[in-house]
Amino acid sequence: MAHDKIAVVDFGGQYAHLIAAKVRRLHVLAEILQPEDPVEKFAAYKGIILSGSPALSAYDEESAYDKRIYDLDIPILGFCFGHQEIAKHYGGAVEHTKREYGPATLEIKGASPVFAGLSAKETVWMSHGDTVTLLPPGFDETGVSRVGAGDGHPNAAIANEKLRRYGFQFHPEVDDTVHGEEMLRNFAVNICGCRQDWAMARFEEEAAEAIRRQAGERPVFLLASGGVDSTVCAVLLGKALGPERVHLLHIDNGLMRMGESAMVVEEFKKRGLGRNLHFADASERFLKALSGVVEPEKKRRIIGDTFLEVFALEASRLDLGSAILAQGTIYPDTIETGGTKRADVIKTHHNRVPAITRMIEEGRVIEPLAELYKVEVRELGEALGLPEELVWRHPFPGPGLGIRLLCSDGSGTPAQPGASGALKEALSGKAVDGALLPIRSVGVKADLRCYEQPVMLWGRISLEEAEPLAAKIYKEVPGVNRCVLDLAGSGFMSARPLAAAVTRERLDLLRRADQIVMDGLRRHGLYREVWQCPTVLVPLELDGKGREFAVVRPVLSERAMTCRPALLPSTLLEELRDSIMALHGISGVALDLTTKPPGTIEWE
Ligand code: XMP
Q1: How far away, in angstroms, is 216 Cα from ligand 1 center?
Q2: pTM: predicted TM-score of the whole model, two decimal places
């Protein structure tokens, strides 16, 4: 039976694929199309969604795609860049305005069917720098957005009911737009009239078929970290090909959590995946390759390349040279590496280094989960019968603690306490002090990578007050993509960058701090509620004694494309602070309060 389906045009925004995943969750098939696809192709769909874009601006003449899609009698909905394109096509105007990131209130006007069943005010998620300043003729303004008590942002939602054209400046597809799913349902089901007859259960069958087709007669060799993705992938491969054709390789890269590798090997054996399980302790090789390297993207490349070297060595040692490489890559790994045509490189995921990309082009890599988000992988894991404690393990990045161990060449001017300029203004009237820290970490602003400084806050302020203050700071203070709260509460006299690279000693220190945090979350029954909680070691000396600084980053998320800080209870925070501060080599602990965007989950 043919399914009713929605076309999602990928203009390269971080969220294009997420839109398709969200529509599929409504049991409506959604497929990604490229802007250059011919208009005839679009005619097979019951609705079209235009995604956001990092590079194209609505007034940029290069934003070429077949504008004849607007002549089709098919409903069209655009988000962010897509919204601006619709406005422009029908005679509206778009201009650069002040950038906006994060939550805003949408005040709904009129009774557009796209907002059926929603309240007059809805929380939506913004990430943009352009605005529709002139409404096209025939269109109505169906929503105004507002951040805090600020001025309303016009034309945040527009509609032409007769033509069935709709535009949202915000992103309904991210989890932080609280009723985004209802908006998508209103569009796909009510406005486009799609039947909800597509089921995730079909995924397993289709994936198994694709695996068999691609593997042919060859054995498959899977790099298995022990995380949710690679374990689900291992089970899926086993089901598709039979366990005797699936070889698992677990590599200890020296960047794992405390005791993790031994536990992973045990777990695989317990799950009956031990038949062809191979283990390589390559920690020396990884640490040697990383020695003296400071730049985060370079670290990522080295880790990715070293994984491949070890894989090749093991494959030849085991006489598996003809094997096809399998990876548990999921969708965000691809999009953040700039893996779709137009997406910006936010970071190079370990499974997307250039050597792997070449192998993919040669058809030598199988990635059965490459279309899925974490929440879907977990759903699949449950359907495949994996136990809850495994399916709900926190995600752990392939490059492991390697990206949570910030490195520095020690250059940079030490920071003094006391705010100045825009930060001073943002903090005025608050019983709190703050300073920019002389270190940079990766973030994402309006779909583009940024490498900027964090602000540290301290003083008499609760987490509930600190969270909106943080949002105000990275909106108002240029060059800032994160805000952390000093858990000792006293700030610093001077913050000096320390020269530090990847060493076993630093990794051991980070492993101990990470263990304290993980134990604390479990003891307080918060492990499942908190989506992920990196602990980061930052080479900043706050005490004049050469000791480092630790940051705890608990986040709430569903798909990792966006996140909010998890506000942990003060008893737990005090325990974490005291235990981490007691570690030899640590002089301070802070809690990260940053949303994504503008920060990423990992610091790098
Ligand atoms: P960011 O830091 O980009 O992270 O907000 C989003 C999610 O992806 C994980 N992550 C990775 N996972 N290989 C992985 O398997 C990687 O190279 C990698 N980098 C980030 C991160 O832990 C978070 O869950």
Answers
A1: 31
A2: 0.76
